[in-house]
Write a structure and sequence with these properties.
By secondary structure, the chain is mainly α. Helices cover about 75% and strands about 0% of the residues. Among the domains are: about 110 residues; about 110 residues, Alpha Horseshoe (Serine Threonine Protein Phosphatase 5, Tetratricopeptide repeat). Belongs to the PPR family. P subfamily.
Length: about 500
């Protein structure tokens, strides 16, 4: 018995040591990723080439697929300049130690196309075709086409699809899946006239399936036309397609978003009668819909039903209930629910924080927001753009410009390139208080990271710098802006 007890203790200690070692490795990797992201974002662009810095900071011997994918993911989230991310990925591709993953390739492609570097994006897919053709997936095709559909014309999008078919994905027969990717490109941009045109022209060549119909149905839902959703639903049924979970989820969401919660509940019953089991997405959508019509009792009931339906609670379900509580102005219950998420090890994501900040702004004002902001920073959580801009506006327009500057410095320290709208609010707030030096430094940081500043920011700084006789600084900004304009795509 004594031996068994000792053995048990030894196993416990061994497992604990393993967990500590894994946690340490994870923490060490996160610190290294943050350091590389910061190095790339802080690098003066385009005054100096990035590759020498990568050679000194990122030895090729330590490159691994998960590491590079994480760095590129952070660069994507940090809104880094696309050419810098591309330079990093090319540096990795040139290494004998590195085999690229589809995730790393897709993130690089996403960063480039988001900034409309389409020439570089085509150059990248051509290189991948030569060296790693297995990385050319439906997802990479979708990234390319959806951005072209957003920034270019209908004809150019169709030409891009043809180019992918004949040049990049040559040797692969395009079928329904590729057709669906093209349709999704238009539907995600709410270009339903173009999507219907493509469907009418090409559905004889590419036989549509239920996924095709759901993509179009989703497009009508995203365009906000509930009548079009229902008309197309009946059309797909007439064509012989049997609705599935996705079909019902789209229709339920359409009704919820329009405030027709009773109709959404009716569809839930219809869904179950048709033998389609509701998913977490179904229940989460309904909880959110209940919140939109201020039916907090039903929202709570649906939330409690999740366990009874043998579904797994996740961040999305908590966020839906949290949003419902906030809409009902019950911030005490919302705060309690947020604490419950923490106790149950369910992550707070950007939606959690954004909704809580919105609720606190309406109820507790700036003080409540300040408390949650401090807590968020302590947890090393980096909010997304819309939350950053919302917080920066709140801080700078409520005489808390120091908190705005703190948020800016926090993002820069984490390797992020804050959004231009955030800089607009910060520079306005700082200049209004005579803090031109700090305004100049933040603007310079933005430009050094390869991102242009707005005309409003430049004109404001120009006025103050001329008044102060700091013409050399004004000239420095002009040079940086002109150099960037020669490299960056023109504004929309």
């Amino acid at each position: 018995m004594l031996l068994t007890s000792k053995s048990y203790k030894f196993i416990q200690i061994f497992h604990m040591s393993q967990k500590m070692a894994i946690a340490w490795l994870h923490s060490s990797m996160e610190m290294e990723i943050e350091k590389i992201v910061r190095t790339i974002n802080d690098h003066p662009f385009p005054n100096q080439p990035l590759r020498p810095a990568l050679y000194s900071q990122l030895p090729q011997s330590i490159l691994s697929a998960p590491f590079v994918e994480k760095v590129l993911g952070n660069l994507f989230g940090a809104h880094s300049n696309g050419l810098k991310a591309y330079e990093l990925f090319k540096y990795c591709l040139d290494s004998d130690f590195y085999t690229p993953s589809s995730g790393a390739f897709e993130k690089t492609l996403h960063i480039l196309t988001r900034m409309r570097y389409f020439d570089e994006a085509w150059e990248l897919v051509k290189r991948i075709k030569r060296t790693h053709p297995s990385l050319l997936t439906l997802k990479s095709m979708s990234i390319m086409l959806s951005r072209i559909a957003k920034f270019q014309s209908y004809e150019e999008t169709l030409e891009a699809f043809e180019r992918l078919q004949t040049d990049i994905y040559s040797g692969r027969k395009f079928g329904t899946n590729e057709f669906n990717v093209l349709l999704r490109a238009f539907c995600t941009q709410r270009q339903m006239k173009e999507a219907r045109s493509v469907f009418s022209r090409m559905h004889y060549d590419f036989i549509p399936n239920i996924k095709t119909m759901n993509i179009l149905l989703l497009g009508f839902k995203e365009s906000g036309d509930i009548t079009a959703v229902e008309l197309f639903y009946h059309e797909m049924v007439r064509r012989g397609f049997k609705p599935n979970n996705v079909t019902y989820n789209i229709r339920i969401d359409a009704y919820c978003k329009k405030g027709h919660f009773g109709d959404a509940l009716r569809l839930l019953e219809e869904m179950e009668c048709a033998g389609c089991s509701p998913t977490m997405e179904t229940i989460t959508t309904l909880i959110h819909g209940a919140g939109l019509v201020r039916n907090i009792t039903k929202a709570k009931h649906l939330f409690e039903e999740i366990h009874k339906r043998s579904l797994q609670l996740d961040t999305g379900a908590y966020n839906a209930l949290l949003s419902s509580l906030i809409r009902s102005k019950d911030m005490i219950s919302a705060t309690t629910l947020m604490d419950q998420m923490e106790r149950r090890n369910i992550e707070h994501d950007n939606v959690t924080y954004h909704n809580m900040f919105l609720g606190l702004m309406r109820s507790n004002g700036i003080d409540g927001v300040s408390t949650l902001y401090t807590k968020m920073v302590r947890k090393d959580f980096v909010p997304k753009i819309r939350t950053v801009v919302m917080l920066m506006k709140l801080f700078c327009q409520n005489d808390r410009v120091d908190m705005g500057l703190d948020l800016w410095n926090y993002l820069v320290k984490k390797g992020h390139c804050p959004h231009g709208h955030a800089l607009d609010f910060l520079v306005t707030g700082l200049c209004a208080r005579g803090r031109v030096e700090e305004s100049f430094n933040c603007t310079k940081q933005m430009l050094e990271r390869g991102r242009l500043v707005s005309e409003r920011v430049f004109q404001m700084l120009e006025r103050f710098l001329v008044q102060m006789g700091e013409l050399h600084r004004l000239e420095e900004l002009k040079l940086m802006i002109n150099k960037l304009k020669s490299l960056l795509p023109p504004p929309d």
